[in-house]
Amino acid sequence: MNWHLEKKVRNNPAARKAFNELAIQVFQLSFESWYENGYWTDAYIPYTLMDGDTATANISVNTMKTIWNGQIKNYIQLGTVMTAPPCRKQGLSRFLMEEIKKDWEGRCDGMYLFANDTVLDFYPKFGFSRQEQYQCSLPVLPQKGVIRKLSMDKPEDRRILKEHYQMSNPFSLLPMLDNYPLLMFYLRSFLKDCVYYLPKYDAVAVVEKAEEENTMICHDIFCRADVNFREILNFLSFPDTKRVILEFTPKETTDCVQTPLDDDGTLFFLTKEDNPFQQQKLRFPGLSHA
Question: Cα separation of 231 and 38, whole Å?
Answer without folding.
Answer: 35
